[in-house]
Amino acid sequence: MRFEELPTPCYVIDEALLERNLKILNGVMERTGCRILLAQKAFSMYAMYPMIGKYLSGTAASGLYEAKLGYEEMGKENHVYSPAYRKDEIDEILSICDHIIFNSFSQLERFKDNIRKAGKNIGLRINPECSTQEGNGMYDPCVAGSRFGVTLKNFRPDLLEGVSGLHFHTLCEQNADALEKTLDAVEEKFGQWLPQFEWINFGGGHHITKEGYDLGLLEKCIKRMQQKYGLLVYLEPGEAVALNAGFLVTTVLETMENEIDIAILDTSATCHMPDVLEVPYRPPLFGSGEAGEKTHTYRLGGPTCLTGDIIGDYSFDQPLESGDRLVFGDMAIYSMVKNNTFNGMALPSIAIRDKHGECRILHKFGYQDFKDRLS
User: What molecular function terms (GO) are annotated for this protein (predicted)?
Assistant: First the structure.
């Protein structure tokens, strides 16, 4: 079917746009010899894993279920990190993952017998205590009191036997200058131990496929670790893989006025695009402008009972009417993986738009999907 024929609400992944991102990432791999993994926490649409697997080295998981998904659907390198592993899951994790990254020395000690039997690559997450972000500390793993990674104060060189690499993840939607600054902190605090490892993982948060990103500086940072310490370098971006490669198609259900014109859509910020409220941010909307920029300004909201279920204020050349279709951009990342059925909201369908512009629906959700989440 054509794009305009899709039911709403519907997530749509554009194959050509996704492949564009993958080619950029693959270019970094080819020029430097690093390995780049898909961080599934941002994008877990496994129907696209065959394409992603053609360009990237594998997957990165945040726990057992993501690890199983990467193992089953991509079948390449499979890395996992968690702040704390469950005892009843650790053996299965060890059986399906190539790299298991621990958050603390106490976790390493707790599972040392399991680790020894598995014979896998074991990593340790470090905290270089180098904040490069401004504003919301919710997205800063180096904020004071962070639960992520071992600080220099708590580092135990005597317990490094069997650890083959170090991992850090400190960035969020940032350019390579933040990575360069972080590497300075990593070397200052942990540099004396780097030569004894085989690999280092730079984590995620690298906005590699965003326009204006400094690819040259990124590659310089990668080569710095390779040439100085002989380390294999991993990166595990999620957002960069599917940045601007997806859409959310929605329909106007009703319009009203209460000191401002309001349009109620069949999609919800809190249910279908939760990062709009959590980050927060204003998603791009095709054919619209900022509030007041065009003739008709509307506050767009969802149909749930949450007063704050507001997507944002947008302006249009013509008044909105019931039945109008609106298309939000950059809706691949942190959307499908975080959506929910609050208020009994139906989940959006999931579709692919191929390189010829044809769309195919992969999955439709209904009442049973809502009911099966409950008991």
Answer: diaminopimelate decarboxylase activity
H-helix segments, the chain:
15-32, 49-55, 64-73, 90-96, 105-110, 112-118, 176-190, 215-229, 239-242, 269-272, 275-278, 367-372
**What is the Cα–Cα distance from 7 to 2, expressed in whole angstroms?**
11
pLDDT at 134: 80
Q: Is 369 annotated as a binding residue?
A: no
pLDDT at 346: 95
Could you give the 3-state DSSP secondary structure of residue 173? coil
CATH of the domain at 268: 2.40.37.10
My answer on whether 237 and 254 are in the same domain is no
Q: How many domains does the chain fold into? A: 2
Contacts of 90 (CB under 8 A, 6+ apart): 111, 114
Q: How far is CA 79 from CA 83, 167, 271, in A?
A: 14, 11, 29
Residue 275 is labelled as binding a ligand: yes
Q: What is the pTM of this model?
A: 0.96
- For residue 250, give its domain range: 3-11+246-331+339-372
| pLDDT band of 295, cuts 50, 70, 90 | very high
Long-range contacts: 24-30, Cβ < 8 Å, 24+? 24/208, 24/209, 24/215, 25/55, 25/56, 25/208, 25/209, 25/237, 25/240, 25/241, 26/55, 26/56, 27/215, 28/208, 28/215, 28/218, 28/219, 28/222, 29/56, 29/57
Task: Choose the final residue of a domain: 197, 221, 242.
Answer: 242
Burial 330-349 (b: 16+ CB within 10 A, else e): bbbbbbbbebebeeebbbbb
Report residue 113 as tokens: 């017998």
